[in-house]
Amino acid sequence: MAVSLQQKRLEELRLQLNEHCHRYYVLDDPLISDGEYDRLFQELIAIEEKYPELVTSDSPSQRVGGAALEKFEQVEHRLPMLSLENAFDDQDLYSFEDRLLRFLLTTERFPYMAEPKLDGLAVELVYEDGVLIRGSTRGNGMIGEDITSQLRTVHSIPLRLKLPDLPRLEVRGEVFMDRSGLEKLNQQRADDGEPLFANPRNAAAGSLRQLDPKITAQRPLRFFVYGVAEPGDTGCRNQQELLQFLATLGLPVNPLVSLCPDIGAVIARFAELSRLRHNLAYEIDGMVVKVNDFTLQTRLGAKARAPRWAIACKFPATQATTQIVQVDFQVGRTGAVTPVALLTPVDVGGVMVSRATLHNNDEILRKDLHIGDTVLIQRAGDVIPEIVKAIPEKRNSSAEPVTFPKDCPVCSHPLLKPEGEAITRCVNPHCPAQRLRSIVHFCSKAGLDIEGLGKKSVEQLFDLKLIKDLPDIFRLQREDLAGLEGWGEKSAENALAGVRAAKEPSLTRFLAALGIRFVGEVTAGLLERSYKSLERLLTVTREELLEVEGLGEQAANSIVEYFSDPSVLEMMRAFHDVGVRPQALEQSGGNLLLSGEVLLFTGSLKKLSRTEAKKLVKEHGGEVASGITQKLTCLVVGEKPGSKLKKAEEKGKKILTEDEFLQVLDGQLKI
Q: What domains, with CATH codes, occur in the chain?
């Protein structure tokens, strides 16, 4: 009897949580707070742990990622996932329609669906009786890889459809990462000494092809559906009806899809998307044009590799040619050695580019790069400069291949390339370049954000040996600074005030500032919530860390290795001696007035710095958003708030002035 009651409650919880997940991630219209969702989720987890035989594949608990795979299994698509032919200008689109009319032996025009072409990874989702049973990559169109466990972690992909009576539905769509997600992920990878993803597509593909689904679960992936394998099985007559039907099933459809009555309207829509693309939260690299009517699609059929009834209209690439002048090898704070090409400056899409990352030695060899080469470069995602390829036809006979050094370019210690990794590292813990980068990071906004100690100031103090290691920051005196070039009494006092203010950081911020490999702000937050104190972390075991939900094996190994190093333990004692006392937020006196609230600041604040404002939010139990997202509950506006204010008003978010925000913290006003 007890089991049947728990089974009934689990069914209720699964329905509720899946519906709330759909409203949050797909409709951007949540009905409950994050705290309420968490309470329902924890109730579900508690029942499933007690009765593991009741766990189902559509349970929200399956989104956290299961056991790591040894390899990906191959999956044959029942119907091939064809590629698309490309169009690049208006004339190509007119020619596309001309071919269709000739094939159909008609002069009668027909409507098209125009859909943004996302820069992501095409996948197929197979639902049986409404439940997701398999997900796979497109692969070569006939055979892909089974990434079901990874796709289950993408919150906008429903684990159960809203109309469960469909015997089988094979859905096709695109998994992608938006701009802000890529920026945060690359920042974390840079902090961990890992190579950056060049564009959102690489990030999405790299995330889905992680053998460990728990890593995928930590990546900010999204999904839009664009079709099904066999439209006739749905009862829909055209692409417009199909997309509307898929939306009723709970699948996310891109809101920018548009029905165009003729090819002229298609061309106008392409021009409009070309103007809009830079303001979107995600990358698009063109527009897919489809004949709307399924009867016509069937008559048109497909060629060997592409359907006749669809075409991808691509935006012009933002590329240019220039020359490699030389290559510098930079050593990061984790010892990662990154080659950077210095280029003859060239305008790429309105931006002067003079440097481009080469990522690693494998990339140098794969692209066969030489000093003096003429190269094709592009701003990947219109942001990150990268070398696409060399142009060997223009290579001078005296050009020398780019050679990766065997020894560290800073300390001359032999470099090491660990097996299975793309990155070459300097493993000398006393390497000055690593030490300097570590100190710069510690003082930066990503670290303790010590006002008055920016990158140039830290480099100056390091060169003068006033700062040799992190605790030395807290030993600085006014007489050390005031007489230095570029300093004075006021700048010295400002820096020392910043140092004093940094002596009691949150434990999360302190751990992130240390620069432990694989420990960014998110992982640091997990450690703070689980262990509450720095002292406890100094003795934590790998087995204990692996029990922390959301903490991966790489991070666990790195943390244990870091705090087992005698020099690190000595540094921790030195921190204590100079008065540094990291605090868990629960112990720092916050009264949790902002518990459950997610705030964002915009415009110029007069009474607080942006850093102070964010710190106050966290100390009082709230979260800080990076943009106008569905999670946001309140926007705090200063002077000249810009477009965020309008967007927040349109979404019905609470708006506070800076003074009202301070009144909330004083208990005089409630959100």
A: 2-64 (1.10.287.610), 86-181+196-314 (3.30.470.30), 319-403 (2.40.50.140), 432-584 (1.10.150.20), 589-665 (3.40.50.10190)
